[in-house]
Amino acid sequence: MLYYSTSKQSQKVDFREATIKGQAPDKGLYFPEEIPALEKEFIDNLNSFSKEEIAVKVIAPFVGKSIPADVLERIASETVSFEFPLVKLDEKISALELFHGPTLAFKDVGARFMSRCLGYFVRNNNKPITVLVATSGDTGGAVANGFYDVEGVNVVILYPSGKVSSVQELQLTTLGKNITAIEVDGNFDDCQQMVKNAFADHNLNEQVFLTSANSINVARWLPQQFYYFYALQQWNDKLNAPVISVPSGNFGNICAGILANVSGLPVKHFIAACNANDVVPNFMQTGEYVSKPAVATLSNAMDVGHPSNFIRVLEIFKHEFPQVKNAITSVSITDEETKAALLNVYLNDQYLLDPHGAVAYAALNNYLLQNPTEKGILLETAHPIKFYDVVEPVIGQQIEIPEAIKGVMKQSKVSIKMEANYEFLKDYLLSKSPVTA
Ligand SMILES: *Cc1c(COP(=O)(O)O)cnc(C)c1O
After folding, report:
1. How far away, in angstroms, is 415 Cα from ligand 1 center?
2. pLDDT at 437 over 80
3. To bridge 26 with a disulfide, which of 10, 306, 317, 352 should be the other Cys (CB 3.0-4.6 Å)?
4. Which of 100, 103, 106 to mutate to test the pocket of ligand 1 (most atoms within 8 A of CB)?
5. pLDDT score at 373
6. CATH says 83-105+221-400 is which class?
């Protein structure tokens, strides 16, 4: 499998190269040259495959010859070594829980898969590789955890100061070793811009071997397809495919779902559920893409003003606007609606959503009121404890801290404070990497 750049000015590369580079040199995103068609036999019998087998089957065509079959099997099964249960909330709505990984958010899957692929690709390198990543909240912890102690890989994480939850902050600032957290005085888009500048800086790249672990990286983006297969594996109504509502920020997750759908997985319709950051909902109304500065909301991991992966959604549909509109509905949900959904589901269904899942729930619920014959699934992308500061006041109760994160909550954060200015980041990266000939 080869990948081309969405900007069409760079050479095609294989999976290995696309993973190591992150972004194409022309600043486009890598996109697979063809979308595999999965056999009907496989799709109709998902029940008879384990989650490890599904992962390998789905990802193998994208990896091609870059990783030998036995290594890929190991990587895939380590990636999905926890549960992905589909929980019924009421007659019409179920939640696919994607928070049973080590950092309690869905980004664990992509981060674990990518870190293992990269570890394999650099296993014989003599120069360490630096993974540079901007986070709006959950990426940081997932990447830090996925790459912790991976030999030959250093990780530098930029996060917006004061704009991530306290659990998220601890998850990315307390590991140490090969993980460094930079606390930027700005918002997520500032962090993302600093990272983009670093990748575009030839002078820096001659001295530091850099790669990205943001969802633009194909090794993080593509394994997210697994969720949709696990959802359908547990979906009992074989005659009616579900509508799937995805809480969306940078649009990597939903784009992976659409890819799975184009490969043959039955999904009736996608809902891209956004918070007040409504660039895509506006696009769906007008056909014009106008990015704007991110605004802070209760669902902070989706506070993105320029969703990087949306270009890939357009690419899947060959930039045909009517096709995009046909496959996806995108709506913007306010913080008030988010809180109302959280409380209603808690009281009526005895189920506690996190704010991101609540955005997806509200969007799905509205859609089903308009389309009463459909049923749907929302992706519950994080455990509510990650956002206890938002959730507890809404339900008027404390939530129990899961065993998995008791440890991290006792630690103290270590970060490097930085202004939102690329030159400071450059100086830092250069100071960390001795110049070699
Ligand atoms: C990152 C994140 C999202 C948004 O996912 P994208 O792939 O960026 O659209 C939604 N919910 C949670 C909890 C997240 O961490």
Report:
1. 23
2. no
3. 10
4. 106
5. 97
6. alpha beta
